[in-house]
Amino acid sequence: MRLARKELRAETEGLKKAAAQYRSDLSTLKRKVASLEKQVARLEKKAPGRVAPQADGEGATRTRFSAKGLASKRHKLGLSAAEMGALLNVSAQTVYNWEAEKSKPRQAQLAAIAAVRSLGKRQAKARLEELANS
User: Fold this and answer.
1) What is this structure's pTM?
2) What is the pLDDT along the chain (134 residues), one digit of tens a residue?
3) Distance between CA atoms of 27 and 56, rounded to whole angstroms?
């Protein structure tokens, strides 16, 4: 019995050392991957002007969308979600969903959002009055 345990211990010792080495290698690789991911994130932040080419071959740049930016612009203009929705030709619930990041606007709606970004308070109120009168 002792002889069998001694032989088993001798055989499994190499496996234990190999397993420990593999765990060490894995943790080293995980640290390297995490470091590289952080480096990529930093580099992406430094080069914000780059836009991925579009699949349909258009040369136009895509409009970026930020939920916080939309909410901020709406508050700066002093508009309710319903009023913002009227400017963008969508419902108030859609505006709330965009701001809560539950959904994203379509490409056609992004153009309307870009147009609203350039408006001031007076211009937004004037456009709302035009929409109400028509």
Assistant:
1) 0.52
2) 889 999 999 889 989 999 999 999 999 999 999 999 999 998 888 876 555 544 444 445 677 888 888 999 899 999 999 999 998 989 999 999 999 989 889 888 888 898 888 888 898 889 888 888 87
3) 42
Q: Which two tokens stand for residue 15?
A: 């496996």
Cβ atoms 92, 82 nearer than 8 A: yes
Look up tokens 């991911």; give the residue: 37
DSSP assignment of 81-133: HHHHHHHHTS-HHHHHHHHTTSS---HHHHHHHHHHHT--HHHHHHHHHHHHH
